[in-house]
């Protein structure tokens, strides 16, 4: 009796896969998921993408093997299965970052046969172990310290290993991709173009951050598609790549989900190229699209963003703040450009900065044909129907079992104030839904700051003092202790924690955790000795201003 519905269910489950396989992957719609950002992998709208990059892994500086921080092992190993729920045909890649501080390690790795072998073997092994379909390398710059000849050799060997692993295991070959800059040559050092063409499935072009407020003393457009006055622009870069013999169908265009804020020297002069005195809003001026939108909403009474179709950029002016970013029109125009140029697709950086999937949907709409859209819809409907049937079955079977347990601190924060008290009290315990947010006991903070000693006091703001401290393992922290006389209630404190978590763009300070024991309200940040106290006070004041929701500009 049960066989008929079972058969139907199986049909429903497998039909989508068949449909997906019948349309070969031609247009790449990719995006980076930064594991240290606010967005949980389970919230990614993966139906809007064909490829997702899980970021970041590193290179171990002693063994040269692939390194995944222990706190990321679980989220990384679950990533592929998690994003497959909303898009069974999604392809995932593990992204490895070579930042400024890792560039020496990387140079040493690619310079020695045995080191290359350690990295290559371990990266392929790890990709398979965690269920990724490919590997990606980010941040390698053509500069003196990186030997481009060695990089070419490294790519040959990486591809050879991927080939032979696939032959021996019978599995589909892992994808190999890398991020390169806007132009193929920087300070007359060139990327190893031939090796990249030969060995990589494609190259992601970092088509943004051309002008930044910490460097350029004029309002620059950081990701202009064109520039009639000959400034850095994406189109000129792509042309250079093609001139160098790189094939268009191996280039994927990077789209920024962030912009930059400049402080105008003269608020009357606010066009592109106007004098600016430095960053606005955040310490380096960088702002995620989501933050830009909320900034305009909170402060920009009557401020409208202007879309300049000559450059293909948007900007807006609020007081003396001038913010440049890619809004929906710019994203659409860039995706159309990539199609017209015969590029392979686009790649967004990064997902957690999108506002309610607005930009991702715009890009998806341009990049997808009507037929593909209908197919996608059919797949979604079928998967949903199958999932609902399965779910109902599961509910019937496990009706007795209580499965809902507390989800820990983030969930707790979202609940009512009266339930603010954290359920975890150990300092080291971390929560799955917020792997980076820890709950500290009062005593551990007291010990770390030497009983809030005056030597450790970094300064005093209107909201209370900020202390420097050190955890038993040697990690340096900054503690913001809200004064008891401060009228910031638990509700506002809660807002601040979630807001700060939302602000965790690469250059902002990281909130490690909170302490709410004994009527205390303390925020614990990573202490970065090279950032000044002003920076911490600034972040705190900025948040405070945001919370007040009144124009203070
Ligand atoms: C790097 O590799 C060495 C040797 O295998 C190991 O002892 C060390 O723990 C690794 N470092 C990290 C940060 O995992
Ligand atoms: C991961 O480990 C690297 C190297 O040990 C370290 O530099 C980095 O800060 C860690 N990242 C996170 C998010 O913990
Ligand atoms: C790379 O190796 C060569 C010889 O094997 C050595 O002379 C050179 O200094 C090394 N370069 C770096 C950046 O370590
Ligand atoms: C980089 O290389 C160029 C030319 O090879 C040289 O003139 C310059 O001094 C080098 N810079 C550094 C920082 O090594
Ligand atoms: C660059 O790499 C090549 C090939 O791996 C090697 O022969 C050469 O010594 C390296 N040069 C430097 C300056 O590291
Ligand atoms: C775009 O900006 C440039 C430079 O400020 C200006 O000359 C041009 O008229 C603008 N175009 C549009 C369509 O706004």
TrEMBL record:
Keyword Transmembrane: yes
UniProt cross-references to CDD domains, sorted A to Z: GH18_plant_chitinase_class_V
Domain of life: Eukaryota
TM spans (from-to): 377-399
Region forming the signal peptide: 1-21
Keyword annotations of the record: Membrane, Signal, Transmembrane, Transmembrane helix
Pfam families: Glyco_hydro_18, PK_Tyr_Ser-Thr
GH18 domain: residues covered: 27-370
Domain Protein kinase: 452-553
Recorded GO MF terms: ATP binding; chitin binding; protein kinase activity
BP terms from Gene Ontology: carbohydrate metabolic process
Name under which the protein is recorded: Cysteine-rich RLK 34, putative isoform 3
């Amino acid at each position: 009796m049960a066989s008929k519905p079972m058969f139907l269910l199986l049909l429903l489950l497998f039909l989508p896969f068949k449909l997906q396989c019948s349309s070969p992957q031609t247009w790449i719609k990719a995006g980076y998921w930064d594991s240290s950002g606010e967005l949980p992998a389970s919230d990614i709208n993966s139906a809007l993408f064909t490829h997702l990059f899980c970021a970041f892994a590193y290179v171990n500086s002693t063994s040269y093997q692939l390194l995944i921080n222990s706190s990321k092992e679980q989220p990384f190993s679950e990533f592929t299965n998690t994003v497959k729920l909303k898009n069974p045909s999604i392809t995932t890649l593990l992204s490895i970052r070579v930042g400024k501080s890792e560039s020496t390690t990387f140079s040493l790795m690619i310079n020695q046969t045995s080191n290359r072998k350690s990295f290559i073997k371990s990266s392929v092994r790890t990709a398979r172990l965690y269920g990724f379909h490919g590997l990606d390398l980010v941040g390698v710059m053509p500069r003196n310290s990186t030997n481009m000849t060695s990089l070419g050799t490294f790519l040959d060997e990486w591809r050879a290993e991927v080939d032979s692993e696939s032959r021996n295991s019978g599995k589909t070959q892992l994808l190999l991709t890398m991020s390169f800059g806007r132009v193929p040559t920087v300070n007359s050092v060139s990327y190893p173009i031939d090796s990249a063409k030969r060995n990589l499935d494609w190259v992601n072009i970092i088509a943004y951050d051309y002008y930044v407020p910490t460097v350029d003393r004029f309002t620059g457009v950081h990701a202009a598609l064109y520039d009639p006055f000959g400034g850095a622009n994406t189109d000129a870069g792509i042309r250079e790549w093609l001139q160098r013999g790189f094939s268009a169908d191996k280039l994927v265009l990077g789209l920024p989900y962030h912009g930059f804020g400049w402080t105008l020297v003269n608020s009357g002069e606010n066009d592109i190229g106007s004098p600016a005195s430095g960053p606005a809003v955040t310490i380096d001026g960088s702002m995620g699209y989501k933050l830009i939108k909320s900034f305009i909403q909170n402060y920009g009474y009557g401020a409208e963003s202007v879309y300049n179709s000559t450059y293909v950029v948007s900007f807006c002016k609020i007081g003396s703040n001038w913010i440049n970013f890619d809004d929906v029109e710019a994203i659409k125009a860039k995706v159309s450009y990539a199609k017209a140029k015969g590029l392979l697709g686009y790649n967004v950086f990064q997902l957690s900065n999108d506002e309610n999937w607005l930009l991702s949907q715009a890009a998806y709409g341009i990049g997808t044909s009507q037929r593909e859209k209908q197919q996608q819809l059919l797949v979604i409907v079928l998967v949903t129907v199958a999932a609902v049937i399965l779910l109902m079955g599961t509910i019937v079977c496990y009706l007795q079992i209580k499965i809902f347990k507390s989800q820990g601190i983030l969930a707790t924060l979202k609940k009512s104030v009266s339930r603010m008290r954290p359920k975890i009290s150990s300092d080291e315990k971390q929560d799955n839904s917020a792997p980076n947010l820890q709950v500290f006991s009062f005593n551990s903070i007291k010990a770390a700051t030497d009983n809030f000693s005056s030597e450790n006091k970094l300064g005093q703001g209107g909201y209370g003092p900020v202390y420097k401290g050190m955890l038993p393992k040697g990690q340096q922290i900054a503690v913001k202790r809200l004064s008891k006389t401060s009228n910031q209630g638990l509700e506002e404190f809660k807002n601040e924690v979630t807001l700060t978590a939302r602000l965790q763009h690469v250059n902002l300070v990281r909130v490690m955790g909170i302490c709410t024991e004994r009527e205390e309200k303390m925020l614990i940040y990573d202490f970065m000795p090279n950032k000044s106290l002003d920076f911490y006070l600034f972040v705190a004041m900025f948040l405070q201003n945001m919370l007040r929701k009144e124009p203070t500009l």
